[in-house]
Design goal:
alpha/beta, 8-stranded parallel beta barrel
């Protein structure tokens, strides 16, 4: 059956301008880091993407190495685009990245011009696209001159392979330098995709001020700390959890009694606000105006719906923020 998007999908979603660009992103985006590889259910992927789009989630975030195996998330998304979203291409923002190991040898990793341009060409083929909306350099390269990496981003935009470019995992000084170099070429970095959540607040001190000053927006990955900032681990580790399945990015050692106690206290505030812990955590990240969007992961459509419902209450009182800070500092 042909998919027809929900005609009221834009009614409730909130869209924020990404930095000082003209691009608006939904405050909730769907990421393909997990659950979109070859070993996952393709029909479940389709249902998650359609559910997201029906709720006004117009931004889908990928990377060359997402899977497993690397490249499979982009291939699966390309299939979904062809089957379900082909007629909606101009209503969606598709982003991908390169910067981590993708293939063997000296040209399949980091930030050389050869790697970045070749990787994006491969990504476009996997997704059957002429261009992506945002292309990111996925991480700083300590060996390649940053001028070369920025030249690659410049070339990608000038060739029409990406409408906008961004960086990911760049710190304050790296962000400022990258922005200045690329700006002199006539292209602006509009976004930095970074890790930020209640358990990782490093960007608040130096990175966010630099980004605000330069007019760069933030897209946030792991806003729920790989599931720690949910009710999932309050009473032990479920057999179907990410920890049990892989234990690569979230390990049992990360689930400490101290963190669980903090989540329990956060859940009390969440209940008072009529939210789940996950909804509270997403709303808390979005309190920062530099944040254009939080990128959620999901394993089923209902999780997407729950997370999107966080936008029903994004406002915090000073008393609530004070209580949250006290919990997090313990």
């Amino acid at each position: 059956m042909i998919y027809l998007a929900n005609p009221s999908r834009y009614v409730n979603m909130i869209y924020r301008r990404c930095g000082k660009s003209g691009l608006k992103l939904p405050v909730i985006s769907l990421g393909f880091w997990h659950n979109f590889g070859y070993n996952d259910s393709f029909e479940n992927m389709r249902e998650m993407v359609k559910k997201a789009f029906d709720l006004g989630v117009t931004h889908f975030d990928l990377a060359n190495n997402y899977g497993p195996p690397p490249g499979s998330a982009e291939e699966n998304f390309g299939r979904i685009l062809k089957i379900d979203l082909k007629g909606y291409r101009d209503e969606v923002v598709i982003s991908t990245k390169a910067g981590y190991k993708m293939w063997d040898g000296p040209y399949g990793d980091w930030g050389s011009k050869k790697y970045l341009i070749a990787s994006l060409d491969q990504s476009l083929k996997r997704m059957n696209l002429d261009y992506v909306d945002i292309f990111y350099h996925h991480r700083p390269d300590p060996e390649t001159p940053i001028e070369e990496t920025m030249e690659a981003l410049y070339q990608i935009v000038r060739q029409g392979k990406a409408l906008y470019v961004g960086i990911s995992n760049y710190g304050p000084e790296e962000t400022k330098l990258a922005y200045e170099i690329l700006s002199k070429m006539g292209v602006k970095i509009i976004v930095n995709q970074i890790l930020y959540n209640m358990f990782f607040r490093y960007p608040e001190e130096k990175l966010f001020p630099v980004m605000e000053d330069l007019g760069i927006g933030a897209t946030i990955f792991s806003p729920l700390a790989q599931g720690l900032l949910t009710e999932k681990y309050l009473w032990g580790i479920p057999d179907d959890s990410r920890v049990k399945k892989s234990g690569v990015f979230l390990k049992e050692s990360d689930i400490t009694p101290e963190r669980i106690e903090k989540v329990k206290k956060l859940s009390e505030i969440a209940k008072e606000r009529g939210q789940s812990v996950a909804q509270l955590a997403l709303a808390w990240v979005l309190r920062k105006k530099v944040v254009a969007s939080v990128i959620i992961g999901a394993s089923k459509p209902s999780q997407i719906e729950e997370n999107v419902n966080s936008i029903k209450n994004l406002d915090f009182s000073e008393d609530e923020l004070k209580k949250i800070d006290e919990i997090l500092k313990r």
